[in-house]
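Morning. Coffee machine broken again, so started the prediction first thing and wrote up yesterday's gels while waiting. Chain of 67 residues, entered below exactly as on the submission form.
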Amino acid sequence: MARLVKHERQGPYEIPEGTELPVFICGCGLSKNKPFCDGSHKKTRDEEAGELYIYDANGRVKVEKEY
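Came back before lunch.
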C-alpha cells in the first residue's frame, strides 16, 4: 500500500563527526540513494511555503486543498 509522507525540509542533514568527509543524509525524501543525499532537494527550491506537493517520475504536482 502506498503512503504519502510529508517532508518539510528542503535540504540535507550534515553528519560531519566521525567521518573522513562530511556525510549528507536526505531530508527532503526525494533522493534515489536514500538515506544519502543525491542533490534531489534542488527540485524543491521554488516550492511555496505551506503548500503540499507530490513528486513522481513525471515531475511535481501541487495538491489542491479542498475546504
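The chain has a mean pLDDT of 88. Going to sketch it on the whiteboard this afternoon.
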